[in-house]
Specification:
about 375 residues, alpha/beta, TIM Barrel, about 40% helix, globular
Length: about 375
């Protein structure tokens, strides 16, 4: 399935330190809003679908903050459904910070397959949660689930200044799935300190997750679920990046230029084409990278293509080390996990949830 991450705008109402969209926009003189026609957009999608040989697609309403452009979002969704709906099974995903979810038009909400809510931990106060950001995103999440029955995935960015344990425990009850991604950065301020903090907190989360798992309840933490899935029910090739880089992700900027990744737009490292001329997908087998003979490859599947293309081996090793710690927690309990899966056979269905396919699996 090809995923079309469509930038409705490069503007945003929540400025996160780890986000480079506005910076890239200014550096490259990218339009703030979509600067191409819907007809051009639809022709591109159809051309790409034919080339991929796929009868299924996902449209991500992306940005910036796409909820600033609900009118355009509705137009895009309607056009895809009206003109491509008979040929392709389409999924529509709103990728948002959640602040304006309460204002979503009902006709758009009723069409959405999923909401991906990107949460900025730095905006959550240590106390007085009844005011501001936290209250808004939680109430809007509950609204989407109760009023429209739409699943909502929380997407967290793990940085040196965040507590992953605190964030996950504070939020996971409200969401259908929680995924976290270690921030991609060319350097850490203090890697050793971050390694100690991150692995300690991953260990705490794993202990809690395993206790529930043993009792018949699977907490919906996507990275943990993905490890178990690929340990016992591996259902795909491990020759390509798990994030979908170069294979099934197309990021369409407001000027119609297309990228395999949303980062580093300024140097066009991930540029793959444009709406007028089409895109080139493929050509990124893990056999070409250091992952080729890695023992963790079936579980990790490369994690993130960007780091392999932009970072040196020492930097890549730092990310590998963080995730290998997580993998080893599960591998050391492999026999126990196997026994639990036999005891609760319905776990296999939960690990096959389509929601997992909308995350990158490996943090």
């Amino acid at each position: 399935m090809v995923e079309y991450f469509t930038y409705l705008t490069n503007d945003c109402n929540l400025h996160c330190l780890y986000c480079s969209v506005l910076v890239d926009c200014k550096k490259n003189n990218l339009p703030m809003k979509m600067d191409y026609s819907i007809d051009t957009y639809l022709a591109f999608i159809e051309k790409t679908q034919i080339a991929s040989g796929d009868d299924e697609l996902s449209i991500y309403l992306f940005g910036g903050e796409p909820s600033l452009e609900y009118t355009m979002a509705s137009q895009v969704v309607k056009a895809v459904r009206d003109r491509l709906g008979a040929k392709y099974k389409s999924h529509f995903v709103l990728h948002t910070n959640g602040l304006l979810l309460g204002e979503i038009p009902s006709d758009l909400a009723e069409i959405l397959s999923l909401v991906m809510l990107s949460i900025n931990y730095d905006k959550i106060p240590k106390y007085n949660l009844a005011q501001g950001y936290f209250k808004t995103i939680i109430e809007n999440t509950i609204l989407m689930k109760r009023s429209y029955g739409i699943p909502v995935i929380a997407r967290l960015t793990a940085t040196e200044t965040t507590s992953l344990y605190t964030e996950v425990m504070q939020l996971h009850h409200f969401f259908d799935l929680v995924y976290w991604q270690i921030e991609n950065s060319k350097s850490f301020d203090d890697y050793e300190a971050y390694y100690q903090t991150y692995t300690y907190e991953i260990g705490l989360l794993y202990k809690i997750w395993l206790q529930y798992f043993e009792s018949g309840t699977m907490l919906k933490l996507a990275p943990f679920m993905a490890v178990v899935k690929f340990m016992f029910f591996h259902d795909r090739s491990d020759k390509e990046f798990s994030c979908g880089y170069g294979r099934g992700m197309v990021y369409i900027q407001t000027d119609g230029s297309c990228y395999a990744c949303s980062d580093s737009v300024e140097n066009k490292t991930h540029f793959i084409g444009d709406l007028e001329n089409g895109v080139k997908l493929g050509g990124h087998s893990l056999d070409k990278y250091r992952c080729s003979k890695c023992e963790y490859r079936p579980l990790c599947m490369g994690r993130c293509a960007r780091i392999h293309l932009e970072y040196d081996n020492n930097r890549i090793s730092e990310y590998c080390k963080l995730n290998q710690f997580m993998f080893n927690l599960f591998l050391s309990d492999k026999n126990k996990l196997s026994e639990i899966l036999v005891k609760y056979p319905y776990y296999e269905n939960e690990l096959s949830s389509r929601l997992l396919e909308f995350t990158e699996f490996t943090p």
